[in-house]
Design a protein that fits this description.
Elements: H1 2-6, H2 17-24, H3 27-54, H4 61-81, H5 85-109, E1 121-122, E2 127-128, H6 130-149, H7 157-173, H8 178-194, H9 199-219, H10 221-231, H11 240-251, H12 275-306, H13 312-336, H14 354-370, H15 379-383
Antiparallel strand pairs: 1-2
């Protein structure tokens, strides 16, 4: 507990890997992620039995699968968090190659599961969504390129990262998956800004995003329907947004009681995209605020630790990973309360989903690895002339 309050102790040379990891890892962020996973199982017990009944499974079929995927996610997170920044970078390059090939082959080998967008590979016992794994490895690879461009006589990393970002976003939009494309673009833009991008370039990028949204609205009926539904002053009570809005309103401050919620019987995505509506109805605003606080704590603590980091690659990659983690949670909850247009995006570690859970574990594992305390001077020492 003392280390959680006063910070981790820098690692010593020759120290065994587990004690070294425990001394240096951010225990507050680790604890928050573990709590979020427990909350996800708790909400899964409430939200998934009606769906299991509709699909002819045992009542806790989806809960058991979520527990299994969650366990794999925790193992992936812990193992990844023990890696050095160099290993994180090298494995991310290999992961990026694999995820890129998987994305490229989706139009040929992928399936849409009747949802109108080819985003998954069907493995029989489960499905695989390559875009979930592309996000963290793309962030790390782009951070490596941006950091390399800052070296004397370094490669044109900024040009490479821009080209890579455009390519990946284009592949995601073609599925179509505008949500994941926006998340990838946002994470890259944050890193580009931190790396010292000119303001005019950022404004130009913002204009390009607006232009792209206009084109998507004109050419995609699916995209236009969601935007029109968001802008409409009236909410159709028979839509997912209508059910979610009513559930949040009914929950009030303390909720209607465990197992007493009704929205899970109406929402087909109550265990995934709209899990926060189940939390709000059965447990009230109190649990929702706790969930928000847990996400905020992970993001803020990570960014504060990264501000003291000297290595440009670690600062950039950590910032990108922390921001996409927080923004994905914000988008999921923002859709449920109608602050954002409807978008199929899971709540990290809380929503059901194999690919999303394991990819979130890898992403946060990378973040924990990059924010571990290392025996180095802080960046402030450079500014004070002691570096």
């Amino acid at each position: 507990m003392t280390e959680m309050v006063y910070g981790a102790v820098p690692a010593q040379r020759g120290e065994p890997i587990l004690p070294k990891w425990w001394r240096t890892v951010d225990k507050w962020s680790l604890s928050c992620v573990l709590i979020l996973s427990v909350v996800g199982l708790l909400l899964g017990l409430a939200a998934s039995p009606p769906l299991a009944a509709r699909n002819g499974f045992q009542p806790f079929h989806y809960v058991e699968r979520q527990a299994a995927f969650g366990a794999l996610a925790m193992v992936a997170m812990l193992l990844t968090s023990m890696l050095s920044p160099t290993l994180v970078r090298r494995l991310s390059v290999l992961g990026f190659v694999g995820a890129f090939i998987a994305l490229a082959l989706l139009p040929v080998l992928g399936t849409d599961f009747g949802k109108g967008a080819v985003r998954w590979y069907s493995l029989g016992f489960a499905s695989l969504q390559p875009s979930e794994f592309m996000k963290p490895v793309f962030i790390v690879v782009s951070a490596w390129m941006l950091a390399a461009s800052q070296e004397i006589n370094g490669p044109p990393g900024k040009v490479w990262s821009v080209s890579l970002c455009i390519l990946i976003v284009g592949m995601l939009v073609m599925q179509p998956d505008f949500g994941q494309a926006s998340l990838v673009l946002f994470g890259w833009a944050v890193m580009y800004f931190v790396a010292g991008a000119p303001m005019l370039l950022l404004l130009g990028m913002a204009g390009a995003v607006v232009l792209g949204g206009t084109v998507a609205y004109s050419s995609s009926e699916h995209f236009a329907r969601r935007i029109d539904g968001f802008l409409s002053p009236e909410v159709d009570p028979t839509t997912q947004l209508g059910y979610a809005t009513n559930a949040i309103r009914e929950g009030g401050l303390f909720g209607v009681g465990v197992g007493e919620g009704q929205v899970k019987w109406s929402l087909p995505d109550a265990h995934t995209d709209f899990i926060i509506a189940v939390a709000a109805e059965e447990y009230g605003l109190i649990l929702v605020m706790i969930i928000i606080a847990l996400y905020c704590l992970v993001v803020v603590r990570s960014l504060l630790r990264l501000m003291r980091e000297r290595d440009p690659f670690i600062r950039l990659a950590g910032t990108g990973l922390a921001c996409i983690f927080g923004v994905q949670a914000m988008i999921n909850m923002g859709v449920a309360v109608r602050l954002l247009p409807a978008k199929g995006m899971t709540l990290p570690f809380v929503s059901y989903g194999g690919s999303s859970l394991i990819a979130a574990g890898i992403s946060v594992g990378m973040l924990l690895a990059l924010t571990r305390t290392r025996p180095q001077g802080e960046i402030g020492d450079i500014l004070r002339g002691r570096g």
